[in-house]
Amino acid sequence: MIELNGESLKLSAIKKVCIDGMPVSLSEKSLQKVRKSRKIVEAIVSEGKTVYGINTGFGKFSDVPINEKDVHDLQLHLIRSHACGIGENFPEVVSRAMVLLRLNALLKGFSGVREEIVERLSDLLNMGIHPVVPSQGSLGASGDLAPLSHLALVLIGEGSVHYKGDIVPTETAYEKEGLLPIVLQAKEGLALINGTQAMTAVGSINLIETEQLALQSEWISAMTLEGLHGIIDAFHPALHEARGYPEQIEVAERIRELLKDSRLTTKQGEMRVQDAYSLRCIPQVHGASWQSIGYVKDKLEIEANAATDNPLIFDEDTVISGGNFHGQPIAIAMDFLKIGVAELANISERRIERLVNPQLNDLPPFLSAKPGLQSGAMIMQYAAASLVSENKTLAHPASVDSIPSSANQEDHVSMGTIGARHASQIIANLRRVLAIELICAMQAVEYRGVDWMASSTRQLYEEVRAFIPSITEDRVFAEDIERLASWLKTNQFEWKGTKQLINE
């Protein structure tokens, strides 16, 4: 069980809760902070002080006073009117992450909600009731208003949820679990939707998947090196230490470890003096992508423990309206991640070309069993090229765009959720490109001699060959690509000494 306190949520814990399904508990110290901030809100309402979002309208309506008798209706209208999400729904794992992150933020005790609100969010996680949240419609400031409003609908018994493998009305899940809808009180609706939890949830799942793919790309590229008699000298530790980037050094070290007992790699001068960049520069290119992973991890873990709603309540005399809901830090991080992931796909596609192009190797043309009569892997390379070209469009930065909203009151926004969504698409494309490279690399090492492979890459080869057969004649390779991509998504390649950032 993961105890939440609003201060120490790590990506490793997000993975345990959102992917592994671990339940959560609430820190008593944090609950005390929640109770304290709620008393301040109740005092503001009873004393008639004017505070944004408690007894005023929202956005451009911030100057419109709200009567004390209407403050509850104000929150209900806010949630219903702001639930304007459109498009395909976020995956259920992202929805679960949104609930987790919103709960953790409220536990900081700066939001003024009742204890009942945080307990219900905890119930949703522990009972497996996850809001159905459309993926489009957020500007990334004032936070993820539209997506989080769909989350908030569930607390009041409205909207739909993922529940026991189905999508059902919230009221159906509540009846089965013995829950009653919550009647929102002053400040609570705003506290639920003013934040960056949609983009941060998508970003967190993105990073978990990216780290896994980055490690898988090293195993796959190592097998490609064997299939092309790659020169191992390019991974010598002295070379990478001379440059000094830790991530580059670590990639080279892992490739050396993977290939330490291979009899398919060569020394410089044996067959050629130098390899092409897509082989020789694996540590430099992959290492730079690892740098983006490290940067994004740092920003996501800060944001996962951040108070991002507005206003924030610090004490009776310090209730401050500000802009912590602005998603720019995560927007830029997601754009950086997009570039790092896209580059892993770019260099993978170039390795695929070297595996299938008879002008670049001494393997059968396009790895075909009967070149000419059968096309072999020819169009698999086309597909990979299409995916990396699409990635270049998706990698265009979302964070440099802004459209004013709310009658120009909110005149600069982050588009961070768009950046996070596009990163998800690039990640999915990378997974399929790596699947294609692995199919081609396995075919290449069969021609070279499987018995000469390194023990590590041989293990990968045998695991995948159990469900992806050798290319003995042409078949519908789309099925192989999808089957292998699904396998990559659910399998982690681990060996002794592997450093995984999200497990730290």
From TrEMBL:
Pathway(s) it belongs to: Amino-acid degradation; L-histidine degradation into L-glutamate; N-formimidoyl-L-glutamate from L-histidine: step 1/3
EC assignment: 4.3.1.3
Cross-link (5-imidazolinone (Ala-Gly)) at residue(s): A141-G143
Post-translational modification: Contains an active site 4-methylidene-imidazol-5-one (MIO), which is formed autocatalytically by cyclization and dehydration of residues Ala-Ser-Gly.
Molecular-function GO term, any one: histidine ammonia-lyase activity
Bilayer-spanning residue ranges: none
Subcellular location as annotated: Cytoplasm
Annotated keywords: Cytoplasm, Histidine metabolism, Lyase
Catalytic function, reaction form: L-histidine = trans-urocanate + NH4(+)
Protein origin, superkingdom: Bacteria
Residue positions where 2,3-didehydroalanine (Ser) is found in the record: S142
PROSITE patterns: PAL_HISTIDASE
Assigned protein family: Belongs to the PAL/histidase family.
NCBIfam families named among the record's database cross-references: hutH (TIGR01225), PRK09367.1 (NF006871)
HAMAP family assigned: His_ammonia_lyase (MF_00229)
Protein name, per record: Histidine ammonia-lyase
Species this protein is from: Thalassobacillus hwangdonensis
Taxonomic lineage of the native organism: Bacteria, Bacillati, Bacillota, Bacilli, Bacillales
